[in-house]
DNA sequence: CCCTGATTCGC
DNA sequence: GCGAATCAGG
């Protein structure tokens, strides 16, 4: 599907309204990725949006040249049934986007006041004794999150099934990565 | 990890 | 012109 006038128009509108590229992509249709949106935005020279001051100093050489695009996923021959109807009725596809994006803000904060007990602030995973692993019992698929004092006899590893993306299980992976990486050393 | 926009370059 | 892959940053 190409960029028809109305699609471009909608793109401009949404972009100016401050929607993110992925949100716009979702709004435009299934076959549109956020990359497509961003690419078009740039071609239209629509950058800068509602930004009075250039907060983002465009100073990135980007010397990429080595990686070549391996291969295309084949032509997504989306033979859309566009039987000459350029202006189809599009009231609003009921944006199926429950995910909060953009500011990563937690707009919905469930109430917790019904809890009679104060949840333990330092909540940890309880690992049953028979699930606990010693150093020598670790392998590629066990969570390597250490628990306890390494010098103590009680020291053990989480041992849950670890993610493919890291050395920890889901619980500890989040704990390890959430917002604290990419720090200079 | 999630996400954002920016850039390059084969198509 | 298009957009996937990639980069850089939060």
Describe this structure in words.
The chain is mainly α and 185 residues long. Among the domains are: 5-44; 129-176, no CATH class. The chain has four helices and two strands; from the N terminus they run H-H-H-E-E-H. It has helices at 5-16, 21-28, 34-43, 170-177; strands spanning 146-147, 156-157. It has a two-stranded antiparallel sheet with strand order 1-2. A hairpin with an 8-residue loop joins strand 1 and strand 2 (156-157). Helix 2 (21-28) packs across helix 3. The longest helix is centred in the first third of the chain and has 12 residues, at 5-16. Mean pLDDT is 68; it is low at 51-62, 68-108, 115-122 and 181-185. The structure holds a DNA duplex (11 and 10 nucleotides).
> What is the percent of helical residues?
10-25%
Topology pattern, helix = H, strand = E: HHHEEH
Mean pLDDT: 68
Largest sheet: 2 strands, antiparallel
Anisotropy-based shape = rod-shaped
Q: What structural class is derived from the secondary structure elements?
A: mainly alpha
Count of helices?
4
Low-confidence stretches: 51-62, 68-108, 115-122, 181-185
Gyration radius over CA: 25 Å
Proportion of strand residues? under 5%
Q: What is the strand arrangement across the widest sheet?
A: 1-2
Q: State the end-to-end distance.
A: 46 Å
Based on DSSP secondary structure assignment, what is the total number of beta strands?
2
């Amino acid at each position: 599907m190409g960029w028809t006038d109305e699609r471009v128009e909608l793109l401009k509108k949404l972009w100016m309204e401050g929607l993110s590229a992925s949100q716009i992509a979702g709004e435009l249709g299934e076959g549109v990725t956020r990359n497509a949106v961003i690419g078009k935005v740039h071609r239209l020279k629509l950058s800068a949006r509602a930004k009075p001051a250039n907060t983002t100093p465009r100073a990135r050489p980007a010397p990429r040249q080595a990686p070549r695009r391996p291969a295309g996923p084949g032509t997504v021959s989306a033979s859309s049934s566009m039987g000459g109807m350029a202006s189809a009725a599009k009231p609003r596809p009921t944006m199926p986007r429950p995910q909060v994006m953009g500011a990563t803000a937690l707009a919905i904060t469930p109430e917790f006041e019904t809890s009679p007990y104060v949840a333990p602030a330092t909540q940890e995973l309880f690992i049953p004794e028979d699930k606990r692993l010693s150093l020598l019992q670790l392998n590629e698929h066990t969570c390597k999150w250490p628990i306890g004092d390494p010098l103590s006899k009680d020291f053990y590893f989480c041992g849950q099934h670890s993610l493919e993306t890291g050395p920890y299980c889901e619980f500890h992976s989040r704990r390890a990565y959430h917002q604290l990486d990419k720090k200079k050393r």
